[in-house]
Amino acid sequence: MKRGEAGFTLLEMLVALVVFGLVMAGIAQAFRYGFTALATGQRAIQVPETLAAMDMALRRMIEQAQPDSMKGGPFSLAFTTRLPQGAGPVGGLQDVALQLAPGGLLVLRYAPHPAGLPLSPAPEPETDILATNVKGVRFSYLHASPGSAPVWEDGWSGTNLPLLVRLHLTLANRFWPDLVAAPAAHKN
After folding, report:
1. Distance between CA atoms of 99 and 106, rounded to whole angstroms?
2. What is d(CA 91, CA 98) in angstroms, rounded to the nearest whole number?
3. How is residue 93 annotated by DSSP?
4. pLDDT per residue over 158-183, tens digit each?
5. pTM for this entry
6. Residue 187 pLDDT exceeds 90
7. Handedness of CA 77, 87, 67, 147 (dihedral sign)
8. Cβ distance 142 to 173 under 8 Å?
């Protein structure tokens, strides 16, 4: 090779390729870290939003509970209500049940409430998962007795509705405040 010729030696090309490879590996790691951080941030934002939406939907359903329909214990609740818009069939009363299913799932089961005497077998209830990673569910019902102060009880059945229904969720990965809702059709 003559002194005046332009070009790179084989050694210079190998060094350039190694440096280029190290720079690309660093950029790939930076993108991976960025995408992981973005996904983690989005999950952290989405979970409270979905829990807030669930909280609002459950509150509305309890507020619209029909008289003579509520039966509940400490770990499940069933009643007749209208489902919020966007959840299940539009319009009409639905028989709903809330309970903790295996695998830490808070589920809502619902089926159309029969109007009058049913002439055919009841349809199979639909099931929606409201929350995941649930360690425990606890319902309680505020009962008013004539001549005494209202008292929280672990169970409810009867012709009237309770003054308030409280739902305590124990979540595996976060704290969520108790949901307390008042059935609007409460009879004294």
Report:
1. 6
2. 20
3. -
4. 778 999 999 998 988 788 889 999 99
5. 0.66
6. no
7. positive
8. no
